[in-house]
Amino acid sequence: MNIIAFENVSKIYNSHSAAVDGVSFAVEKGEFISLAGKSGAGKTTLLKLLIAEERPTKGRVLFNGQDVNKMPSRYLSVLRRKIGMVFQDYKLLSHKTAYENVGYAMEVAGMSDQDIRRDVPQVLDIVGLGDRWENFPSALSGGEKQRVAIARALVQRPEVIVADEPTGNLDPINTWEIVKLLIKINELGTTVVLATHNKEIVDSLERRVVILDGGKLIRDEQKGKYIIT
To answer: 92: buried, middle or exposed (CB in 10 Å: 19+, 13-18, 0-12)?
Structure first.
């Protein structure tokens, strides 16, 4: 069953360039896919279209069969809780501890203090930070900050984790730790979409890869390599 579908989607910002140009593909529930391509290939634009942060110039973006651009605005917050976003620059609140950063996401979503006390320690354990919950971001390594960001995305029990260049600021060791964590999350049943320009990651995963170049989909392979011809 498809959880995400892009149907002939284009996003044109001006007459000279299409950030996304006629892209069509679907993601099945429980899949792990790499969305690969160089900087400027259209990866981030596609992800913004998925969470209705941008609207397509043409085509449809579907989540669980629903056109995200026809959802009433009051449902968009629900959509975005079902799609956990992880970014290259972490987007942590510097004045809050790891625990508070994760708990704040639940608080904003209207969850109770009891829910927060129950769920935050569990999700910090999943990402390997059970003993670092009192630390502020300034006391965490880059890899640990990204783990907090993943925990924050996970704590709302999303159906999909979308990671946009999550290893872009990390050294090789932390890069592979984050990739292994995303694999673990996928194995626990969450669909994962990993946007990356890192050829080594894509090739080592040996999983489905969708490659964009100049806004166009140029390759979609079930056990693919990062190849641009």
So the answer is: buried
CB atoms within 10 A of CB 13: 12
Q: How far apart are the first and last CA of the chain?
A: 31
DSSP, collapsed to helix, strand or coil, labels residue 213 as strand
Tell me which fold the domain 2-221 belongs to: Rossmann fold (3.40.50)
Radius of gyration of the chain (CA): 17
Distances (CA, A) of 36 to 122, 149, 191, 216, 228: 31, 21, 17, 12, 10
Strands 208-213 and 216-221 turn out to be: antiparallel
Which H/E stretch holds residue 208? strand 208-213
Give tens-digit pLDDT for 89-146.
999 999 999 999 999 999 998 899 999 999 999 999 999 999 999 999 999 999 999 9
14-62 residue pLDDT tens: 877 789 999 999 999 999 999 999 988 999 999 999 999 999 999 999 9
Answer yes or no: pTM beyond 0.70.
yes
Beta bridge partners of 20: 11
CA 217/CA 220 separation, integer angstroms = 8
1 neighbors 30 (Cβ within 8 angstroms): no
